[in-house]
Design brief:
Order of helices and strands: EEEEEEEEEEE
Mean pLDDT: 94
Distance between the termini: 40 Å
Shape: globular
Helix content: under 10%
Oligomer: single chain
Radius of gyration: 13 Å
Structural class: mainly beta
Strand content: over 45%
Largest sheet: 7 strands, mixed
Low-confidence stretches: none
């Protein structure tokens, strides 16, 4: 059973940066990993995903600002966020999925997710 634990959220001003971490327990070496977020009153939206061989893709609104990476030795997934905007305010979740087609799906649809970490960006 894969378990995911996020950390690193907080409050920053617009233009600031944060790095989220997600520690994975269990064998997720062949899983797709990703991040999604959910703001109050809004639907979940995928932020980005990373494949087992390191390929990444992102939603358009975060391209060039957010970077997903992973440290397999530490079983940790990261989301580096820069140039944060107020519209990035949301609960951020780490997610994992073992499906063969998981690369083509949004992280918000993945089988496993963490408890979330709050990111608040103020103007």
């Amino acid at each position: 059973q894969v378990q995911l634990v996020e950390s690193g959220g907080g409050s920053v001003q617009s233009g600031g940066s944060l790095r989220l971490s997600c520690v994975t327990s269990g064998d997720a070496s062949r899983y797709c990993m990703g991040w999604f977020r959910q703001a109050p009153g809004k639907e979940r939206e995928g932020v980005g995903v990373i494949s087992g061989d390191g390929n990444t893709r992102y939603r358009d609104s975060v391209k060039g600002r957010f970077t997903i990476s992973q440290d397999n030795a530490k079983n940790t997934l990261y989301l580096q966020m820069t140039s944060l905007k107020t519209e990035d305010t949301a609960m951020y979740y780490c997610a994992a999925d073992p499906g063969s087609m998981c690369w083509y799906r949004e992280a918000s649809t993945y089988q496993h997710r963490g408890q979330g970490t709050q990111v608040t960006v103020s103007s």
